[in-house]
Amino acid sequence: MPGKFFDEWQVGETITHQPSRTVTETDNLLFSAMTHNMQPLHLDAEAAKASEFGQILVNSTFTFSLAVGLSIADTTVGTLVANLGFDKVVTPKPTFIGDTLTCTSEVVEMRESKSRPTQGIVVFKHELTNQRGETALSMLRTVLLKKRDA
Length: 150
What we know:
This protein has helices spanning about 25-35, 40-45, 45-50, 60-75, and strands at about 15, 20, 80-90, 100-110, 120-130, 135-145. The chain is of the alpha+beta class.
């Protein structure tokens, strides 16, 4: 399923990506270990139980990466030149093991590249919501995309 070229997008266009993803204990454990994030809230059930959350929190950089991963099939596969930046990353609600996350993307800004006439810049707002309808993560992702007509 290819992404879309710069000239196929419109500001305001919104996509709810499928499939959603249920976060497992293994996801959290492996991602935390691979990134050397040994925060007890992510790995130690007893420490997490004693926290205000009462359970293990999923590593927020996993939820960040999951938002990008869930979104790319519909947005940038095969059309991406480069990710230019990630901004305004917020995690208003924690993610817990067993939460099912769904990603929605909205085009919030577009502009022609001044230095690359065959490419354009798109800013996506990605939002992950859990099965309770709560926003687990929101961010802006700025990408450089190929133009179809170039």
